[in-house]
Amino acid sequence: MCLSSAQCRAARALLAWSQDDLSSASKVAKATIANFEAGKRSPYERTLQDMKHALEAGGVMFIPENGGGAGVRLAKRADASIDTNETETVQYEEYLENDAPPGAGG
């Protein structure tokens, strides 16, 4: 199986997706998703693939079973990179008040 019910629930939680959101993104009926996540039935492999691909497109990475158990995590987004230019000074408003003692020239 390519997707467990626990991975599906966890992936939706990471994306803050409802079952309706996953249904829209994967073109899988909401009842099928609900029954799968509740452990009531196992969908066809193709249906599981559709759900998995939709969650991956939303930004989830699936971690294979490697002795520690299968899991999910958010993928690192290219647009979420951190600027590490340490030559620039950044001043935040809360640090701009003058807290130097009087006469200290601050």
Automatic annotation (TrEMBL):
Keyword match Cell membrane: no
Region (Disordered): 86-106
Classification via SUPFAM superfamilies: lambda repressor-like DNA-binding domains
Gene3D superfamilies: lambda repressor-like DNA-binding domains (1.10.260.40)
Domain of life: Bacteria
Assigned keywords, A-Z: Plasmid
InterPro entries: Cro/C1-type_HTH, Lambda_DNA-bd_dom_sf
Name under which the protein is recorded: Helix-turn-helix transcriptional regulator
UniProt source species: Rhizobium indigoferae
Lineage of source species: Bacteria, Pseudomonadati, Pseudomonadota, Alphaproteobacteria, Hyphomicrobiales
